[in-house]
Every structure is written in C-alpha cells, then in structure tokens.
Amino acid sequence: xxxxxxxxxxxxxxxxxxxxxxxxxxxxxxxxxxxxxxxxxxxxxxxxxxxxxxxxxxxxxxxxxxxxxxxxxxxxxxxxxxxxxxxxxxxxxxxxxxxxxxxxxxxxxxxxxxxxxxxxxxxxxxxxxxxxxxxxxxxxxxxx
Length: 144
Hints:
five-stranded parallel β-sheet
C-alpha cells in the first residue's frame, strides 16, 4: 500500500455515490488521513470560513464544476473572498465529468486551480490524482 500522500483533503461534489467511492478508495488505499466531503459548495465555503475550523482546513480541495445551488465556478469566486482569512494555502484540483473544452480553458484562468482532471473512472486514475496533489502540496510547502 502506498504511504499517506495527503494529510487532509476536501471533496465537493453533488454526486453522493462518487463522494462515497472517492472517500472509500482513499481510505482503503491509505491516500489521505482525513477526507471530508460536501455535497453542496455553499456548505464547504461556510466550513472553510468558520474560524472554529482553522485547525481542520484541508491541504487540497477536489472540486466538481456542475452542482446545484452553487457551482464550482461560484465556489471559486467565494473562495477568493475568504482565502486571505484562512491563514493556509489550499490547492484546488478541478475534478469533474466535464470534457468541455471551454471549461478546461476557463479553469486555466483561475490561479487557484492547480490541475484539471476528468473524474477518474478507476483506482489507478484516482491514485494518480492523489500523487499529483501530494507533489503540489510538497512543492508549495517548500517555497513557503
């Protein structure tokens, strides 16, 4: 089994089966010590903005684009508003089912997004996403 790659992460996706699968595989493969899931992006913003949660902020956010109430793009704008208060650099990976070229290009306009992935369809792809996330977290911490 691979070593833990990320100590804390957050997945925001309205697909409950996908969140469950993502969390379960993360646990089984020991890819993340603490993975929190939110089905609504607004709830994730509320969690991140709450000063009581400062000790529990994730290293990485895995973000879907198309969700009800607040989509991934709206989340990113709200995240920009609260980011200065967080006291922690959090990297974001867009993990979505969208293969739309316009979404991929739009993601490049957000410096908060480190990488754009089409939702992994198997264990190897998910493990590769975690590996890339761990490398990004490591690189970020080495320059801080």
